[in-house]
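User:
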Amino acid sequence: MLGTAAASGLISLQTRLLAASPNRYAEIETRVARHDLKDLAKEDLPTPCMIVDLDIFEKNLRVMADHCRKTGIHLRGHVKVHKSPEIVKRQLALGSIGVTCATVAECELMARSGIGGILLTRQPASKNNIGRTIALAKRDPTFATVIDDPEVADWLQQAAAAEGLKLRAVVDVYAGLTRHGIAPGKEALELAKKVDVSKNLKLIGIMGYAGGSAHTHGWTERKSKSQADLAGTLETVAAAKAAGLPVEIVSGGSTGTYNIDSENKGLTELQAGSYIFMDTLYRVIGGKDDPHAYSDFGMALTVMSTVISKRHAKMCTIDAGNKALLKPTDEVKGRPEVKVENAGAEYGSLKWEDSDREFKLGERVELYPSNLDMSTSVYDRYYVARGERIVDVWPIMGRAGAAQR
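Assistant: Predicted structure:
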């Protein structure tokens, strides 16, 4: 059973809810729009919603920034995790050199927010994306895109020539993920040479994203796989340099391998993104100093839900379901023993064995998500909290209006 203080708090919450104006939600939305967050608390928010623990988030940023500064590797963090210029600006303030983006739309969002050093990590192959890529390069001379195919190099050369500009390009080399990347060695070197001699393309480096190693369990095993996956990329880098080609950057890496990639000295920059928030799938892979838990970075993001029904023993229903991307691998904050289950589009279930620790109707429950990229894609904002108090609201790239998320 809840203690007296907790029970009193719940009664107070229920009293506030019942006494609130029917226009309370409209009032909150108006205040959020004008950034008037005075006295705004978690209990005022609609659910499900995303909550960022500001203290943990800021510590994560500092840990990565300090690591990069000490090891000499740069950070060009991936935005797919958060899709938020507010977060990028905080990374840049701590020394990040730019951002990596998987879609043209993400690049456009960042460029419109005044962010430079953008690297598009998925080569543009459609007429639409090629046109938008050229427009980005025209707008920002620091913008660059990857290329893993000679035909795409030709298309981009023609498009850049038509606009009279020089497009910065990075050759994307296979590093264990079959979804992209030209074969390392001869093929990659020939593509690099082709880009280098193209009048309207400027070769700036090589990318090898060994994403398949990021979630390998055990730090030693992860290190071995990362090094094996990157071997061909690094051999290609050496061959390109020997051929006199300009290799300003060697880009790759992930949250799971950040302290491996900086050790081998092959990469010049990291594309790590998940470290800012972390999720349950990363936490179980084990760290360098702890084989059981990856605790280098704290769990800063939760999805907050509400208990909406409590009609059966040792279980309750929450308002975060399939559409909120609830997963059985999610975890309840403060209650790791609770089992999470899907129960429908708008419903989730929590089940437990300890009958002395019941959830109460109307109680707010925070969940650590399993996959940050996917969770971010269905929400429109982050509510930033210190304890129970909301201190900021950061927009997430919208699902409406963008030509491509």
